[in-house]
Structures are given as structure tokens and as C-alpha cells.
Amino acid sequence: MSDGIMREIYDRVREAEFVLVGIGEDFAYDWSALTEDERYREIEEEAGRDQENVWIIPFLQKMILQGGRDDRWARAYHNLGHMIAGKDYFIISLCIDDYIYDAGLEEKRIVTPCGGFRKMQCDRNCSHILYDVPQESCEAIVRYYNKELPLAALREPICEKCKGKLRFNQLGVTRYAQEGYLERWKEYTKWLQKTVNKRLCVLELGVGMEYPTVVRFPFEKIVLYNQKACLYRVHSSLWQIGEEIADRGCAVRGDPVDFLNQFTEDKA
Predict the structure, then answer these.
(1) Most buried pick, 9, 76, 119, 204, via CB within 10 A?
(2) Exposed/middle/buried for residue 24 (C-beta within 10 Å: 0-12, 13-18, 19+)
(3) pLDDT per residue over 76-113, tens digit each?
């Protein structure tokens, strides 16, 4: 990938009045990397023998994510932050790994409609309430991981309202609590209204067809109707841009994390 494309994107971002960023599944943390952890594999096998213990796995994923941030993603988010620094931006991320919240970006300018590991909810969504992640559960999982506690000593966190099971507030829960992101989504739609007929640079990073009606299709529509908008789409396999906006779009074939990691501040 040439420095020319990266330079062009940077220049368009700097010239824009507004910057809209979409981050998709092709940008997400590689969960298969967890299997490189021998203890994780042991726990996955042990917990997997009994459906009652599968709740442990997401806690373990949260622990490993927080304990060893992958430098590849950290650098990519840092570079994104430098690229859009000082701009009026908004970011929609479909990733649930929460890396984006540790990247020094403004949280009020980020919405993650698929959820993550920062809050929990009743799996029945009995009261539409989100809960803080219980510290005692996290500590117990760490002790279990370190073989200081047996599996039988772990207790699944329970909803204080209906005594149902608590789950991380992520898309895929039986009754996903959208309350975790709706307020921020409203802020995003208000922000979007300000971009009408303004110089808008739209940057898509790894957004595929998993949830196309959330980012990919709406972003294309935004660029189609705003003649002052441009779109840069980076994806390893779904990089193509339709003919309707081809004159104001640029398709980049490649891994979006690697692509951002080619950006260096000295080239900006």
C-alpha cells in the first residue's frame, strides 16, 4: 500500500469540516489468539464440560484483554487518534473488544452498538438496567486462572431484580439491552445533522457485511446525498465501492489494522 494513499486520506481528513469513522469486524481483536494461552485452553475445556459454567469464558476474555493489550491494535488506534486530532468527529464501532475506549479518543464521540465488556445486564433484560461488572467475580476468575480457586468455588453473578443471570451487555444476549448505547446513538444522529452539505470525510475501517445496515449502507447513503463528502473504505476482502459514489470514494484492499499502522506522524 503506497504512502500516497495514506497521505491523501490524511490531507482529506485535515481539509474536512467533519470526520465520520466506522470500525467493523475486520478491525476487531483476533479472538483466536486467546487459544495461544495454555491456561485459557484448559479453562475453556473444563468449563465447556458443563453448560452451567460457560459464563466464565467471557470473564476470562475480559481479563486477558485488559491484562495484555495487543500492541498491533494499540498502535492502530493511536494512529487513528492522531489522524483525526482536533477535528469534529464521530466514531461508530461494531467491535466488542473495548480497545477503542483505551485509545485516548473522546468517549462522548464514540458509540458501540454491539456492546462490550464494560457493563452487564440481566439476560432477561427484566428492568432495562445496566450493572457495573462485579469486582468480586473478576477477582475470583483471576484466582481461578492462577489455580488458587477451584471451579466449584466460582459463583455466577445474579440480577438483583429478578435473580436471573447477569451477562455482559453485548449483542447476542437473549434480550440485548440497547440502553447501553442508545443515548450515545442519539448524540450521533444529532451530530450527523450538522454534516449536511458540509465537507465530510468518511473513513471505513474493516466494515463488512455482518451488520451492513448499521454502518456500511448508511455511510454509502450519506456520501451519495452529500456532494461534499468523500469515502475511504479499507477492507481485506470487501473493499469495493459502488459506481454511484466511485468519483468521491477510494477503495483500499488490505487489513485495516495494518493499514493504519503504516501511518506515521512524521509523514503527516
Answers:
(1) 204
(2) buried
(3) 999 999 999 999 999 999 999 999 998 899 999 999 99
Residue 49, C-beta contacts closer than 8 angstroms, at least 6 positions apart: none
More confident site: 181 or 61:
181
- Residue 249's H or E segment, with its range, is strand 249-253
The answer, as to whether pTM is greater than 0.90, is: yes
Q: State the DSSP code for 2.
A: -
* Start-to-end Cα distance in the chain: 16
Catalogue all structural domains in the chain, each as residue range(s) with its CATH number: 1-29+70-113+181-268 (3.40.50.1220), 31-69+116-177 (3.30.1600)
DSSP state of 61: H
| DSSP per-residue string spanning 202-241 | EEEES--SSSTTTTHHHHHHHHHH-TTEEEEEEESS----
In contact, 231 and 249? CB cutoff 8 Å: yes
Q: What is the mean pLDDT of residues 38-63?
A: 87
In the predicted model, what is the mean pLDDT of residues 24-41?
Answer: 88
Which residue, among 155, 156, 159, 95, has the nearest Cα to 123 in the 3D structure? 159
DSSP one-letter string for 99-136: GGGGTT--GGGEE-TTEEEEEEEETT-SS--EEEPPHH
Interatomic CA distance for residues 241 and 112, integer angstroms: 24
